[in-house]
Specification:
Radius of gyration: 19 Å
Number of domains: 1
Helix content: 25-40%
Mean pLDDT: 90
CATH superfamily: P-loop containing nucleotide triphosphate hydrolases
CATH topology: Rossmann fold
CATH architecture: 3-Layer(aba) Sandwich
CATH class: Alpha Beta
Bound molecules: adenosine-5'-triphosphate, magnesium ion
Amino acid sequence: MKPFKPNLKLVHPKPQPTGRGLVEANGFSVSIDKTLLLKGLSFQLVEKQLTCIIGPSGSGKSTLLRSLNRINDNIPGFSATGQLFYAGENIYSPEMNPVELRRKIGMVFQKPCVFPQSIVDNVLFGLQKRPRCKKDRAHLSMQPLKDVHLWDEVAHRLHDRADTLSIGQQQRLCIARTLAIQPDLIMLDEPTSSLDPLSTLAIESLLMELKVRHNILLVTHNIQQARRIADNIIFLCDGQIVEQGRKEDIFTHPKKTQTRNYLDNQLCDC
Ligand SMILES: Nc1ncnc2c1ncn2[C@@H]1O[C@H](COP(=O)(O)OP(=O)(O)OP(=O)(O)O)[C@@H](O)[C@H]1O
Ligand SMILES: [Mg+2]
């Protein structure tokens, strides 16, 4: 089958980033068929910080994440306009290799998505070269599993199938799989929405540890979660950024009434 090519003709041919953020969007818009889903977004992601995207259902949070690592390319009718840069490189330039891009920008989904393989093989799934010997594979999987505090729980059963783990353990395994490819940016789309409170807190403290070394972009519906762990907030509604800034400013002195309403009762009249 011929690979689908997104409509990129409207993207400015030689846009220039300001160099102020690891990710930088300037008037970035996305349409599917003729429906505009993201409307002229402009923001920058500061390095080694955790940015939370909050906003009501259907506001475009997942669309934004999926546009950042170009998973949306395969949707028929997808088109992007404006500018979106990663480390100064135009994400939608014809020269950008989406497979390479996804090695730098890892993604964790809402529901833990483990493959029907062993725990070890799940961790090493994204690596270009995987050792053949079981012992070497186990050794290579150790650090990512330690990073997500799963090693002690699974060290004795590394070659068991990953779907025998609890849901919370599976989600940590998915984060380990993302860490194994050593991405610069980790994007997580509501990673705790299917987890119990204890597993949620485990993931939250893990993200707090990881942000020292990684850049993290987290979509959450959980305002308290954003309050606990975010450095920065982007509030998205109806495909537009209503307000963005440091967590302290957004939570204590929101500039917009819509932001205040959303933070108070998660209602939005955008
Ligand atoms: N493949 C698609 N084709 C057509 N419309 C789409 C597609 N994917 C998403 N949309 C639409 O884009 C809008 C934004 O969807 P998106 O999934 O990004 O929202 P969200 O903020 O992540 O919502 P939620 O919090 O429920 O996950 C919605 O109106 C959705 O129906
Ligand atoms: Mg979503």
